[in-house]
């Protein structure tokens, strides 16, 4: 662990244990440098990391202060005062059957002209879809007929080159020959899982986990075992090690960057530790990194792939969350499983449509993707702060929430008496949608949790809807 990461972790623990209270000033850069015997540069790096985690904020001419929501959010997993923690239970592999719940929920969201707090999709108005459509139309006019052979797996060569260049520009060199273009990250995840496990196998996942991961497991007739996941540090590696020691695990599926629904950015030291644990047991890990570009800090986060020395990380990503959702362009970097994934891609869907691939490649080569991303990140960061403040204002005592470090979703724990499915129905009757917590697990652990989407513009209607939601929660509590 770097010195600045160690210092940032120490201050995070101090906030978690109430040493620094919400709104309280932490030591100045010079004071911290003297107290910890490190350079001012190291302290600045640590404080920047704390800002990116949402633990502290800067105030001009005043210094660094603990964010009001941080004292509640960083301890989301801690027992409440007067409540003993539940005894640890042995995780059990379970058959997965969440697709019907998710499908009915998404249909309800689509069928109602409602405030989209429950939507899993980002606000499309932030995306340059008109510009990309212009590229696509120009390509279609130039090529009356397209040679299908050109875009058989692994995909369009220019798009592959642009993706590899994107990684290289962000300090993560990859081999273009490893990249396989897919129909979004969902196909990349499904193909990767199919390549490393078979029906009946057990796959370890985070808890809570993004339901697309559970869909992939369900579709392939596998079983899921959920591993406790920390809202700041990510999957509990020690708990995962115990699971591996006691049960046969075919693969692990995680979202280390801005996990949906918790929103954390797993620290580099924990990423390295996770990769090393799985590599020692020769267990492949599927890394869902669809939110990699939507970070709130100064630098793009590292990936599990960057710590992989044995080809066991199958890295999956897409442009659906950062550039355009309508074209569904994703990719996989499957490591030692590349040949299997390429074959499965050919057998499953033959190709990914050509025109969208070339249109996205043209945009990446000729337009301001970085400028677009800077704007999106700024909007999401601002709207995350607004929604957290409004939840704190309108929701009842006993409500707690995560602190997203990127992405566009907020995970909210409601008072225990609140049933999120009842809340979902009551809110929908008032043209408000939420993501009920039961969608993110095979168990009933998250019955009183909801996921909220903050990517859409904050308006008077949005604020009124969140206030109404808070009133419903208060009534149910």
Pick out its properties:
aminotransferase; Aspartate Aminotransferase, domain 1; 3 domains; Aspartate Aminotransferase, domain 2; single chain; alpha/beta; Arc Repressor Mutant, subunit A; transferase; globular; 477 residues; transaminase activity; 16 helices
In short:
42% of the residues lie in helices and 13% in strands. The protein is of the alpha/beta class.
What proportion of the residues form beta strands (DSSP E)?
5-15%
Low-pLDDT sequence parts? 70-75, 77-88
CATH class of the largest domain: Alpha Beta
Largest sheet: 9 strands, mixed
Number of domains: 3
Number of strands: 15
Using only CA atoms, what is the Rg? 22 Å
The coarse overall form would be globular
C-alpha termini separation: 43 Å
- Tell me, rounded to a whole number, the average pLDDT: 88
Task: Find the CATH topology of the largest domain.
Answer: Aspartate Aminotransferase, domain 2
Helicity range: 40-55%
Which structural category do the helix and sheet elements fall into? Answer: alpha/beta
In the CATH hierarchy, the architecture of the largest domain is: 3-Layer(aba) Sandwich
- CATH superfamily membership of the largest domain, which one? Type I PLP-dependent aspartate aminotransferase-like (Major domain)
Question: Number of helical segments?
Answer: 16
